[in-house]
Amino acid sequence: MTAGFEPPPLVWETMGDLRARAEAHPGGAIDLTIGTPVDPPPSFVAEVLARSGAARSYPPSVGTPEFRRAAAGWMRRRFGVEVDPDHVAATIGSKELVAGLPHWLRLRGDAGGRDTGGRDTGGRDTGGRDTVLHPAVAYPTYAMGARLAGCRAVAVPPRPDGGLDLDAVDPDDAARALLLWSNSPGNPTGALDDLARAAEWGRERGIVVASDECYAELTWDGPPRTILEAGSEGVLAVHSLSKRSNLAGLRVGFYAGDADLVAYLGQLRKHAGFMVPGPAQEVAVAALDDDAHADAQRETYRRRIDSVVAALRTASLGAEPPGGAFYLWVPSPTGDGADLTARFAERAGVLVTPGATYGPHGRGHVRLALVVPDARLPDLVARIESLAV
Question: Does the 53-289 domain belong in CATH 3.40.640.10?
Answer without folding.
Answer: yes
